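ARCHIVE CARD
Drawer: 12
Card no.: 0347
Subject: one protein chain, sequence and derived structure
Cross-reference: see card 0346
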Amino acid sequence: MSTSRFTTVRSATTAQSTSTRPVKKSHIDGPADINAGTYIENAEIGPNVQIGPNCSVVGVTHELTPGGMVFGDDIFERIILHDGAFLGANAVVGPGVEIGEGSVVGAGATVTRDVGPGMLVRGTRPNQERVALREWVGD
């Protein structure tokens, strides 16, 4: 693990690490920037993806029943971050979510549904805002 403030991945790699590592059971098709304090599990990270500090990209869940909360009885739902996606600091991406090419997830946002390409997502449900990034920046 790097001691710098972020990890820059320059080539494709498959990350298989222990639970003490920030990237677990994921494939990174670099280059990608993964900032300090971020945890990634069960994800496909495309090239040119930037992930801010303290993000959670976790494609693992449990069945939400009394019997589903058994230790080690995980349900894996792969997360996909497409080329050029950007996650702001403290963003959370839930299991099975796909973030489209060039999309931005704002700082502190929690994403539980797919985001199309070129979109901006900010806030959390039920008041989450989703707009075309071009609209937001005024192009």
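Annotation on reverse: The longest helix spans residues 133-137. The two ends are 39 Å apart (CA to CA).
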